[in-house]
Amino acid sequence: MDLGLKGKRAIVTGGTRGIGRAIVDRLAAEGCHVALCARGTEEVAATVESVKSSGVDGYGKTVDVADSHALCDWVEEASIMLGGLDVLIPNVSALAVANNEESWRAGFDTDLLGSFHAVETAMPHLEKSTDGSIVLIASTAALEIYLGPRPYNSIKAALVAYGKGLSREFAPKGMRANIVSPGSIYFEGGVWGEAKANAPELYATMLQRNPMGRMGMPEEVANAVVFLASPAASFISGANLVVDGALTQRVQY
């Protein structure tokens, strides 16, 4: 299936590992020019080279998305380098799980304000596109409460509401906004990769909870994200696509 992304231009924050890297790789494979940021200089450089090896333009910079000025400057710079912007995917998360003020502030500044500032800066460029699209990355933790009160759950729930609000604002302008909520996703160095090594009982419990008997892979989330971002999903906006292997039990109407 041709997603219609060839020659389109995308920005991805947190694009060097896990879900973010899988999104970058899939966009590049679809012929999309990609600008990405992350905090690791070497990882950014290596990912940009990988993007370019796909035959598309790649740009990257070391950015902490919790630094709003640096983030806004980079989104503006990247949009100009790309020659415009069609797709924005704010992907970075602080993974704030401790129930203390520092953790709450980290989640708010990184996940929520990081997405907000990226969207606001990208807006003038997306409005010039014939296929302007945003995909926010939430979580099944926004949909069901488990492991007690955590900032991560509440911040991700706020992103779902924010994305739905954007979809209503964007529709008259010919732009779209959607959300993808991954379940338990495994990769080396990720949350569940670390749990497998350091908290095997918790890891085993999560495996047992999932009817598929396994965790998802970053590429499986990326497939959903890139589809929603693409012109192939041109009449889909305001959706929250859950990618969890039937982990969650709530009925979604």
What does it look like?
This protein has one domain: 3-Layer(aba) Sandwich (Rossmann fold). Helix content is 46%, strand content 14%. It has eight helices and seven strands, in the order βαβαβαβαβαβαααβ. A seven-stranded parallel beta sheet has the order 3-2-1-4-5-6-7, with helices on both faces. α1 packs parallel to α2, α1 crosses α8 (218-229) and α4 (101-126) runs parallel beside α5 (151-170). The two termini are 28 Å apart. The relative contact order is 0.15.
Q: What is the CATH-assigned architecture?
A: 3-Layer(aba) Sandwich
How many β-strand stretches? 7
Shape: globular
The parts where pLDDT drops under 50 for at least 5 residues are none
Reported by name, the CATH topology is Rossmann fold
The total count of helices amounts to 8
Oligomer: single chain
Sheet of most strands: 7 strands, parallel
- Output the CATH homologous superfamily: NAD(P)-binding Rossmann-like Domain
Q: Count up the domains.
A: 1
The Cα radius of gyration reads: 17 Å
First-residue to last-residue Cα separation: 28 Å
| Strand line-up in the sheet with most strands | 3-2-1-4-5-6-7
DSSP strand content: 5-15%
Mean pLDDT: 94
Task: List SSEs in N-to-C order.
Answer: EHEHEHEHEHEHHHE
Helical content (DSSP H or I, runs of 4+): 40-55%
Class computed from helices, strands and strand pairing: alpha/beta
> Which CATH top level class fits?
Alpha Beta
